[in-house]
Structures are given as C-alpha cells and as structure tokens.
Amino acid sequence: MKRLLVTGFVSLTLLSGCNPSATYYIDWSDTSEDQIQRMDEANIKYDIRDGQIWIRERDLDKAAACCS
Fold first, then answer.
1. Cα distance between residue 2 and residue 30, in whole Å
2. In this predicted structure, what is the pLDDT of residue 17?
3. Torsion sign (Cα): 48, 54, 55, 61
C-alpha cells in the first residue's frame, strides 16, 4: 500500500511539470508588415506588445524557418 502511494505521488509530481496547455511567449523581433505577413502565412500565433512581435515558445523553430 505504501509503495503504491509513493509511486502515485512520484508519477503525479513528474507529470505536473509537463503541461502542454501552458503558453509561454518569447520576444521575436520589431514589428514590421513583412514579419506579420510571414507569421500569418505560416499560421504562427503571435502577440504585438510595445512594438515587438512575441511568438509562442513552441513555434520558435517554425518562425526561424519561415521568417528569418
């Protein structure tokens, strides 16, 4: 019984760090029409904050491939 509880606790602890629904944004570049057009064409979600384009961390490779 104790082993089962410890195994369950360890499993929940390890899996709680893997949250695919968490969205983290990183600063990509200054805002320009070309960059926005490329992001839209590549279906990359972005935010514009204070004149900067912020992309989701998981889209970094896709953005580097299409927009650099």
1. 55
2. 64
3. positive
Rg (CA), the chain: 19
* Among the listed residues 31, 32, 33, 34, the one whose alpha carbon sits nearest the alpha carbon of residue 53: 31
The tens digit of pLDDT for each residue in 2-23 reads 787 778 777 767 666 666 666 7
pTM for this model (two decimals): 0.65
In 3D, which of 28, 67, 66 has the Cα closest to residue 50?
Answer: 28
Non-local (6+) Cβ contacts of 31 within 8 A are 48, 51, 52, 53
